[in-house]
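Human: I would love a firmer grasp of how sequence relates to backbone shape in proteins. Take your time, and here it is.
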Amino acid sequence: MNLEAESYDFLADVSGPGRGGTTSRVVEALREAIVSLELSPGTQLDKAALCARLGVSRFPVSEALSRLQAEGLVEIRPQAGTIVSRIRIADVRENLFLRRALEAEAVRALARSRPPEVIDALERNLRYQKAAAAAGDRKGFHVLDLEFHDIIFTALGFERVKAMVESARLGLDRIRRLLATRRRHTLTYKEHEAVATALAAGNAEAAAQAMVAHLDAVMVELLALAEAQPEIFADAVPKQRSPRSLKALG
């Protein structure tokens, strides 16, 4: 994921009229570029080039970078410039811990009442997920994945809980994109299907266990990725060479 940082061809001009203020549009554009990995972890950002590409002055870019630093997506280093933050496994663990606790309880609660409109919505979503996974539609599957979890929390009706889960999800977006292979999409579909099947059957404990298994699978794959590509993580431990390979290097 080596990028020509000076061109930023993947960014669009945000200077014209649009939704929200200029700074908000810059934040949205840069956040999406970071989360989608167009700007990969560790990339040095050229503020002047960003201004030129986005069609804005330095102020909204500086403000946007400050907001993204608060979100943990960039690091502003005095005298050294700004870089896209590397992913911290510790943060991923914390966000997954929060999601595991809240989402397991959410599906437990819904399984007890089994609202037919929610079951129907989940089953419809799963049909679209299956089609997106089969077609290799990464963007479409990502949207449907988000919708699946949103259906559950909208039905639950606890807005503060939903906001907490959304915050944790945002902290995991880069990981989701990194792991977005066709194989992972197929597995995610099956994991979601297990959750929906348990909900439809009114089996609260099975629904909770299926949700926990789904979220734990993400962590397993993340650790494997961190071992293979430690350069994009802030706290990864590189894979240790075997004694035989060390001897060969000697």
